[in-house]
Specification:
The chain contains 7 helices and 14 strands. It is α/β, with parallel strands linked by helices.
């Protein structure tokens, strides 16, 4: 069965990669096709893990609108970002169903044009506003350089970490990445050389109900010897306020040797000859660049 995913944000390549990571985490095949903001792919068991998708729909028809051979058997409503509500609603309506815009039994999503229509029965409407509850200023412990929950969740998804696997953040800071990992059913583990950050990270994890964590004080390349992990995801330290014992790149590469996949963020345009896969503009003085390693 094919599902339609309406992607969010300005960077559709990053949104598609976010979806691909979630598919990989569930052992599903990759995205089949993308038309504009709509990606076609297998269904996900945990669609609300997605960081950059508005809604997910099970595709029930694809083709020319006037050739539509599908009809709902109950009350329904049609939603469309492409202005197809009326035309599709008229084609779907018959004696066996009713249009109900207030509380329909099923919502159908229409994408494309009348000549190339993708029609799906909504399976998940993803409330991306929930990420706002976990922004820096809403945490018990915060830092001015903390990344957004959306980007943190994206990094977790890019790693392809599956439910039950362990994700290690060697420079965990306030725990933004670990919070998102825990909310995806991935076991969070972290290290930081700053004792205040370690305590703050633990406090933040517990604030959002993430309890099965391991967060230890110490250098990343030492703590990693005490933890079994599957993937590494981290935001590399930078700036005068960051505390690091040695070169963070050296430590990251050492930690990455024991991981299936490593995803990390740096403010540098290249890291040891490695070029970023994505760039996320934050403000005039900061662009976060996303890198990945498979060793």
């Amino acid at each position: 069965m094919t599902y339609a995913y309406r992607l969010a944000g300005e960077d559709l390549e990053l949104a598609e990669a976010d979806l691909s990571g979630c598919l990989a985490a569930e052992g599903k095949s990759d995205v089949e096709e993308r038309k504009g903001r709509v990606a076609l792919a297998p269904g996900l068991e945990r669609p609300r893990r997605l960081a950059r998708t508005h809604e997910v729909s099970e595709v029930v028809y694809r083709g020319v609108l006037r050739g539509l051979d599908f009809s709902p058997e109950s009350s329904f409503a049609v939603r469309s970002p492409d202005g197809l509500e009326k035309a599709v609603g008229e084609e779907l309506s018959d004696a066996g169903n009713t249009v109900d815009l207030e509380s329909p039994e099923h919502v159908y999503r229409a994408y494309g044009t009348e000549q190339d229509l993708i029609l799906g029965r909504q399976a998940a409407d993803i409330d991306r506003g929930l990420f706002e509850r976990r922004v820096n200023q809403n945490r018990k412990f915060s830092s001015p350089v903390s990344m957004s929950p959306v980007l943190a969740r994206t990094l977790v998804n890019l790693s392809g970490a599956s439910v039950g696997e362990t994700l290690f953040d060697p420079f965990c800071g306030t725990g933004g990445i670990l919070i998102e990992a825990g909310m995806c059913g991935v076991r969070p583990a972290g290290a930081d050389i700053d004792s205040a950050m370690v305590e703050g990270c633990r406090s933040n994890l517990e604030q959002f109900g993430v309890l099965n964590y391991k967060v230890k004080e110490g250098a990343a390349n030492k703590v990693c010897e005490e933890i079994d992990y599957d993937v590494v995801v981290s935001d590399l330290p930078y700036g005068k306020s960051s505390k690091v014992d040695g070169d963070p790149i050296d430590q990251l590469l050492e930690v990455a040797e024991h991981a299936d996949r490593t995803v990390f963020v740096s403010n540098q345009s290249s890291v040891r000859g490695l070029r970023p896969e994505f760039e996320v503009y934050v403000h005039s003085n900061l662009t976060r660049r996303v890198f990945s390693l498979t060793l």
